[in-house]
Amino acid sequence: MDTQQNTALTRALAEIPGPLPARGVIHIAIPHTDRFTVVGNHLAQHPDLSCTAVGIAVRIQSLPQGIEVGIKALAARCREGEKRVAAALRELEAFGYLQRVRDRLPSGRVITRTVFCNQPTALLRPRPTAIPRQPAATATPQAPAPAPAPAPAPAPAPAEAPTPATAPAEEPTATPAPAPAPAPAPSPSPSPSPDVPAPPPPAVVSPPAPLFVPLVPPPTAPKPPPAPLPQPDKLTPELDRAATALLSDLRRHTPEFTLSESDIRQLAPGVAAWLERAAHPDAIRRALTTDLPHPLRRPALLLKHRLTALLPPPLPGLRDLATPAPPRITITPFQTCDACDRAFRSPAPGHCRDCREHRARRSDDTRTAAA
């Protein structure tokens, strides 16, 4: 029995205009009429996104609003596990396609909304806004409207042109002609036309702010300049010699750090700053050579970054390490009143407050009686 031929595929290939390529993919584009999603080439052909991230983005873009798109929900819909889905979501969030925005509901509860944007770069461009029309613009075309009002004036002319027999028949129509005459009577409408001020120029409307600001800048955003290499307070010949020797000796421990003389001269002040802050040479060597990327393409730039980002602080002095003395708290001792034996706080023995007041009143009464 002969192999069956797919006639539908053969007919579709025959309908493709032009010669078919000898290699590569051949597209048979059939227009969609329902259940389709428009995906931009900036996402489908993104050079820095993995195929898993692109597929997850297309899946999210095809879902209706309100569908849960968390890690567990997507892992239940796709064949990828939770780890691959989480990594893909992190990639989409890094390039601005996925955003997580915290919002407060009227009830006061704070929720996290997941927002997916099919064109994250379009949010950074200002959007054109329609200039609102001024109401004066509609009044200006109405100003010349009264001009056609005198048109009924020619109406009597046809009344005179016909034969005298018809003239009396049309007189009743001529009598209502004066009725529209009062219409032009409100002549104030044409008179203020020269006095109407020109409409003010439209106010400059600033473009509205975007719906949300991406937390992660797009890959095309300008990067901040790198931090400068640390410098010692005073580069002595001893510090310079020790820093140069440490950099030259790195290739004995890590062959990838075979530096040129110009690189060593540029990086020596950074190592001198570490040595000035009492960092041990072995500690400096471990900080510079451990956990290296593979492959290591530019060792001098990696050393500059680590010397700048991992610079330790200066050692604290003895006064900084001294334990501060606890604050002295003065406690007033208890005393026993000499008159009523009541306990009260006082720096010296004597009488309590009530006894002092009683003795003061007695002395006043005695003074008054003597007077």
What would the keywords be for this entry?
single chain; mainly alpha; two-stranded antiparallel sheet; Arc Repressor Mutant, subunit A; two-stranded antiparallel ribbon; 371 residues
Write structural notes for this entry:
α3 packs across α5, α4 crosses α5 and α9 packs across α11. A two-stranded antiparallel sheet has the order 1-2. A two-stranded antiparallel sheet has the order 3-4. About 16% of the residues have low confidence. The chain is mainly alpha-helical. Among the domains are: 84 residues, Arc Repressor Mutant, subunit A (Orthogonal Bundle), CATH 1.10.10.10; 73 residues, no CATH class. The protein is flat, with a radius of gyration of 46 Å. The longest helix has 18 residues. It has 15 helices and four strands.
Content-based structural category: mainly alpha
CATH architecture label name of the domain at 41-124: Orthogonal Bundle
What's the tally of helices? 15
CATH topology of the domain at 41-124: Arc Repressor Mutant, subunit A
Task: Name the CATH superfamily classification of the domain at 41-124.
Answer: Winged helix-like DNA-binding domain superfamily/Winged helix DNA-binding domain
Structural Rg: 46 Å
- The largest sheet has its strands arranged as 1-2
Arithmetic mean pLDDT? 78
In terms of quaternary structure, what is this? single chain
